[in-house]
Amino acid sequence: MRSLHLCAIAVAGALLLAGCSGDGPDVDPVPATATGGGSITLTFPPPADGTTAEVPDTDTITASAERDLCESIAPEIEGWAQGGAGAKLSYNTTVQGWAARNGGLNDIVVRDRGVVDTITVKTCPDVRQRALAALGISDLASGLVGFGN
User: Fold this and answer.
1) pLDDT value of position 80
2) Cα distance between residue 147 and residue 108, in whole Å
3) Which pLDDT belongs to residue 37?
4) Is 20 helix (H, G, I), strand (E, B) or coil?
5) How far apart are CA 54 and CA 41, in angstroms?
6) How far apart are CA 111 and CA 59, in angstroms?
7) Quick check: 42 and 32 in contact, CB under 8 A?
8) What pLDDT score was predicted for residue 132?
9) How far is CA 90 from the centre of its chain?
10) Looking at the predicted structure, is the pLDDT value of residue 53 above 80?
11) What is the pLDDT of residues 5-51, one digit of tens each?
12) Which residues neighbour 9 within 8 Å (Cβ) at sequence distance 6 or greater?
């Protein structure tokens, strides 16, 4: 939830800066209203064509996202075989990048690091086994740092 607040603040700041530039076309600013507790609520007008924008479901891991995790891990394994803290840092960066690219799945991984094992057991068990061996860990969840339980 904290990351959502930080994102809202960052977006509001960017919108305020963009509104001050004077270089862009004249558009109505997006109203930002302060609410209690120091948070900001952003209200976006509906699209002019009457359609609704699709927002990725950050609580669902699609089959495409599962394949992407395997495809993200596989090319990194050789570098992880060197071992050490750098290998585990690279592994964490790979998982964070995958989660961010696939609709902000970081929240799911934070709630349950084991989801990485669940996906790789199902989708690419061979890649999972090679990654475990290269990282010297018994499960992929235990190699994740800063993701919660």
Assistant:
1) 95
2) 9
3) 52
4) helix
5) 20
6) 11
7) yes
8) 96
9) 16
10) no
11) 444 444 444 444 444 444 445 545 555 444 555 544 445 455 565 55
12) 40
pLDDT tens digits, one per residue of 56-93: 444 678 999 999 999 999 999 999 998 888 999 999 99
Instruction: Enumerate the H helices of the chain as residue ranges.
Output: 2-21, 63-73, 77-80, 84-101, 106-111, 115-123, 125-135
Query: Distance between CA atoms of 24 and 18, rounded to whole angstroms?
Result: 8
Query: How far is Cα 89 from Cα 76, in angstroms, rounded to an integer?
Result: 12
Residue 128 has which token pair?
Answer: 């999972």
Please give the Cα distance from 87 to 83 (Å, whole number): 5
- Reported pTM: 0.59
H-helix segments, 23-82: 63-73, 77-80
9: tokens are 């603040």
| Nearest alpha carbon to residue 9 among 58, 31, 37, 42 | 42
Q: CA 58 to CA 133: how far, in whole Å?
A: 30
Residues 6+ apart with CB under 8 A from 130: 74, 77
**CA separation for the pair 134, 126 (Å, rounded):** 12
